[in-house]
From TrEMBL:
Organismal lineage: Bacteria, Pseudomonadati, Pseudomonadota, Alphaproteobacteria, Acetobacterales
Domain of life from the UniProt record: Bacteria
Residues of the full protein shown: 501 to 788 of 800
Domain EAL: 24-274
Coiled-coil zones: none
Protein name as annotated: GGDEF-domain containing protein
Organism (species): Rhodopila globiformis
């Protein structure tokens, strides 16, 4: 019976493996046509000043309006895109869209765009970036690019040179998900960045955990000594906001302050009807 069970398990495994394989292939094909058919769009999440509640910037986050599965978040398709050669195209599409959209806002708030390590690997990125800025008319100072520490894992001369060239243009580089990589301090030593975003896994344990409180306070100190700004990600409670304010973390992002949403809400395009994001930000401000 054990033998039979083993056989059945092996069979199940193969079945799952095949399912997964075909699932991946299908998703890749669908993603390729999603790019052609403009099913990808951006939502924007505010980043606020913890003292005033003012929106100081917004982060563009990609979504896929899938023809049958509804709106998908990046977790459902980015790993797949990263593993295929679609990532460069997807990244370029997102960057161009973010620049054009932000350039049209009446409220000239800066926009942050996430960058995949793959986009920096080929050496074509800086050219694409210049083109996006030129075409859209967005001032370089209004654009920030968020990179995770994995960018530095595959760090090559191409990557390093491009990061420097990006900053020379006046576009900011921000270290995303800070603290989750293997040797965050090494990256800070080796590369010049303008900002750091403390990963939401740290924020989640505030203000309860003394250990995390010590770490976050220290990151804040480090950043201010290095003249780098800090954003805490994933802020969901008033208690977290209060802690950040009393511990010198200048900026925050999270559901408490606004969920990712349409740009009309904060861009000044629809001032008559402040949408949910502003309403939530105001609620948070009232609690200050
Ligand atoms: P990220 O850059 O760290 O973005 C923050 C993620 O946390 C977003 O998820 C956002 O919706 C979510 N979030 C924000 N506030 C809260 C909160 O208070 N609580 C919780 N639990 N979550 C919060 P999203 O949109 O699903 O994006 C996930 C990741 O996918 C992003 O993490 C980013 O690494 C990647 N991503 C998103 N858009 C792009 C893109 O256009 N290009 C690339 N290369 N990566 C992207
Ligand atoms: Mg990000
Ligand atoms: Mg992040
Ligand atoms: Mg994150």
């Amino acid at each position: 019976r054990a033998k039979e069970r083993g056989k059945k398990a092996a069979c199940l495994f193969e079945f799952d493996f095949e399912q997964e394989y075909y699932g991946r292939m299908r998703l890749q094909a669908e993603l390729a046509s999603a790019l052609d058919e403009q099913q990808l769009f951006l939502v924007y999440q505010p980043i606020v000043d913890v003292r005033t509640g003012d929106i100081v910037s917004v982060e563009a986050l990609v979504r896929w309006r899938h023809p049958t599965r509804g709106v998908l978040t990046p977790g459902a398709f980015m790993p797949n895109a990263e593993a295929s050669d679609l990532m460069e195209r997807l990244g370029e599409y997102v960057l161009r869209l973010a620049c054009h959209t932000a350039a049209g806002w009446r409220n000239p708030v800066p926009v942050a765009v996430n960058l995949s390590p793959k986009q920096l690997r080929s050496g074509r990125f800086v050219g694409i970036l210049k083109q996006c800025l030129l075409e859209s008319g967005l001032l370089p100072g209004r654009l920030a690019l968020e990179v995770t520490e994995t960018v530095f894992l595959v760090s090559s001369e191409t990557t390093t040179n491009q990061l420097a060239a990006i900053r020379d243009l006046g576009v900011r580089i921000v270290l995303d998900d800070f603290g989750t990589g293997y040797s965050s301090l090494t990256y800070l030593r080796g590369f010049d960045v303008d900002g750091i975003k403390i990963d939401q896994s740290f924020t989640r344990d505030l203000p309860g955990s003394q250990k995390v409180a010590a770490i976050v306070r220290t990151i804040g100190r480090l950043a201010s000594d290095m003249n780098v700004y800090v954003v805490a990600e994933g802020v969901e409670t008033v208690g977290q906001m209060n802690w950040l304010r009393s511990n010198g973390i200048a900026f925050a992002q999270g559901y408490l302050l606004g969920r990712p949403g349409e740009d009309t809400v904060f861009s000044g395009l629809d001032p008559a009807r402040p949408g949910p994001t502003v309403a939530i930000a105001n609620t948070a401000r009232d609690s200050l």
